[in-house]
Here is the input.
Amino acid sequence: MEFFYWRAIDMINDNYNLIISFDMTSEEFREISFPEGIAHDDYCSLSYLGNSLVVGGHDKQVINNKDLCVWMMEGGVSNSFTKLFTITSNGDVILRGFRKNGEPIIGIRGKVVLGGE
Here is the structure.
């Protein structure tokens, strides 16, 4: 199965983030919930690591919610995410994607910074 994913905001129910998926085979749409901690983060993002959907955002359930937490969808199972890592920061950090070698590409205050540099 092949899917397209994009971020949406449910403005009727408390302005929370969700993921809309479109299954290219069955031509069906589905809603997928973000991990609970980033459901209300204005800066959450979607990306891919290999063939897996990855989401990043500032976890409102942790003390320093400026840190960027990154989760991967488990085995293509909707609403099942595993936390991969956290990038410690004292400012707004946004996940932009990943390099071919798996290093994260992050944005900081309007700049693009490649992981490991």
